Amino acid sequence: MSIKIDSSDGGIIRQMIPFSTMSNHIFKVICRKIMIDMAEDGACLFQRGDNHNELIYLLEGSISLEAGELKLEMITAGSESAKFAIAHQLPRKIDAFAQGDVRFLRLDAMFVHSIDVKDTEKKAHYEIQKAKKADSEDCKSTLFMIPVIRSLSPMNLRKISEVLEEINVEKEEVVIDQGGIGQYFYLIKKGECLVSYKPSEHAKTIKIEKLDVWSTFGDMAMILGEPYAETVTALFNMQLLRIRKDKFLKLIKDPSLTFIDFIELELWQDKGAVLLDVRPADEYDELHLPTALNVPLFSLAIHLRLLAKNQHYIIVCEDGKASEAAAFLMKKYGFDVKIIRNGLNYVPRGVLLGENQTVSNDDPLERSFVEGLRQINPDTLLDSDDINDVLRDDNRTLKQDLTHLKTQFITIENEKRELERSLDSLSKRIRRSGG
Questions:
Q1: Does residue 157 lie in a domain region?
Q2: Domain range for 92
Q3: Mean pLDDT of the chain
Q4: Does residue 123 or residue 162 have the better pLDDT?
Q5: Half-sphere exposure of 264 toward its Cβ, with a 13 Å CA cutoff?
Q6: CA 318 centroid distance within chain
Q7: DSSP state of 273
Q8: How far apart are the first and last CA of the chain?
Q9: Residues near 296 by Cβ (< 8 Å), separated by ≥ 6?
């Protein structure tokens, strides 16, 4: 459950880093994101290699940090070490076990960007803390909490600050209306709003989610060049920061996106990059790249928790437009993303797979072998140059299939960890309730 800032837990957490430097307003927002959990003696809080992007702080009890048989450190609640997130680097370098019953908090790291920053981000982190101390309501504080904006050049940040508008919105006022034309990119400085959707004019309104401080909206419509797909309504009086469409595209969207040519794809996949096709499922089934995983743009947001933050991602769609929207969404949450320039329109048709293609076996290795045999012309079988070309093509296909299997494995492993964590949390609640 979340906590109240004036509770005993709130007082303990207030002394931890970086919560001790936050204004009351920002700390109150953070507290709504915190989840308190318990673990019994010997329970594992996290394992070496864990990539789940969350911070863990100890509230009660002791935790042993271990590497194999070696016990590295014992952390006790209330100590200096307990003021910091425990072994926060990802992937985790060590295991953590409860020594007796413990209470601890979990917090998605996206809400606290002072942890494990790269050298190029240290200046931005310093500015965050400086801005908070000077004025907790300062616009730059809000801007720096958005990863995609924080990664921009100092010149861009200065220009954004110059054109940024601050507006007040009253409770129940509609900020953007479904079907309206996208004119602004919004950042929430104070307050909360509701995102809703109507499938048709006379249909019942569907509530999608609540957005609060540091959340953004309005960007997808402007990037795609389409009307707003949802309605956003203020739940309380709000303070918003907004940027006009032309300035948003020039100062934020365009400089934040990175493109590669299709010819570079194999090189990035050799480095472990995962290829995501964000087109609708029917278009993907009709024709797609062999190693691409299909995550349609409309459902991408709900899949983000299953994607590893330390992974490189390549995005592709039909013409590049949906890829830009997908990449910007992922970069808002700190993912490393690149886009295949101009999408599948500039990809040779011969390298794409379609639903009507048939293979003798579902096994990717056998499929590659059979396809390689089909390419051999018996009349030139003794020509060593042709044989080398066939083997080279076959080897390339095998590499692509292997990469596809690896990316599927990564996705399944992430889903497995999420389910195991949910099951473990549910089991603890049942035990505590005496069920």
A1: yes
A2: 8-115
A3: 80
A4: 162
A5: 14
A6: 22
A7: P
A8: 19
A9: 278, 279, 280, 281, 284
